[in-house]
Amino acid sequence: MKLNITNISNDLEQRLRDSVPTRAYNLTGRGIMWGLIGAVLVYSLFPLVWMAITSLQPEVHLFTRPPEVVPHKWTLEHYFDLWDSNREFFFYYRNSVIVSVLATTTTIILGTLAAYSISRFEYRGKEFLDNSILLVYMFPAIVLVVPLGILMNDYGLTNTWYGLALVYLTFALPFSIWVLREFFNGIPYSLEEAAMIDGASRMQAFVYVVLPNALPGIIATAIFTWSLAWNDFLYASVIMSQNNMQTLPVGLNQMLNSANPPWGQFMAANTLVTIPVLVLYILVQDYLVEGFGAGGVKG
């Protein structure tokens, strides 16, 4: 077979000529995409970075014009002042940590068991329960604040950590059941059967086979519940009226609404509130993506 070298060369030359615009188009598209991602990152992170920088500037430099993006002098005086003159802030911190831990732990335990029962067992009312899980999300939070406040007051649960944690369960538990149910549906029942054939009990199969496979969903729901309890202002301001029982959002709001707000301390307090949540999100970000993605796709 005789090859026509001239035709092959012309064909390659034409393909190379056609690929140049395509490559330029791809490079332009990538440049626009990365530019948009960079703009969104700057827009999202700038308030946090500015808050941290402001907390490390001396008080006299906070209102200079133009603002100092990179301070000439760094200081930790606002953090020490916060410790010396605003001890209430650390009570708020303690209350937020305890309420968030209570709400998250309870939601994970109850949500995991409820979602597993919906996924694996047949019983009366299961279909109604399954279809009405997210019904509470149809109502704005402000609609439920008065009935829940009256209920907590009637049962003597106002100004208590577990009372506020119970309020957060009304929102966090349905979402947790919905996400975890989809995870359990995606785990083959044959894995549990194989474990039970090998001698494991039903509970052992659940703990050692099912739970490890549902770990991304459990972590995603735990982070959702923690964020809900950590950031809530509305219900905390209603349920916790005593000053020593208030949580961080309510306490920071009081600091901001004082006659002469200590802006440096306010920024230092906000930085201390943000750091634990930021670190937590960074540590479990892979589980979050997998958990919320799987819950949305499988539903």
Automatic annotation (TrEMBL):
Any Gene Ontology biological process: transmembrane transport
GO cellular component terms listed in the entry, alphabetical order: plasma membrane
Principal place of residence: membrane
UniProt membrane topology term: Multi-pass membrane protein
Entry's localization field: Cell membrane
Keywords: Cell membrane, Membrane, Transmembrane, Transmembrane helix, Transport
Positions of transmembrane segments: 32-53, 91-116, 128-150, 162-184, 205-229, 263-284
Pfam families reported in the protein's UniProt record: BPD_transp_1
Keyword Glycoprotein: no
Family annotation (InterPro entries): BP-dep_ABC_trans_perm, MetI-like, MetI-like_sf
Record bears the keyword Nucleotide-binding: no
Domain ABC transmembrane type-1: 93-284
Family label: Belongs to the binding-protein-dependent transport system permease family.
Protein name (Swiss-Prot/TrEMBL): Carbohydrate ABC transporter permease
Lineage, opening ranks: Archaea, Methanobacteriati, Methanobacteriota, Stenosarchaea group, Halobacteria
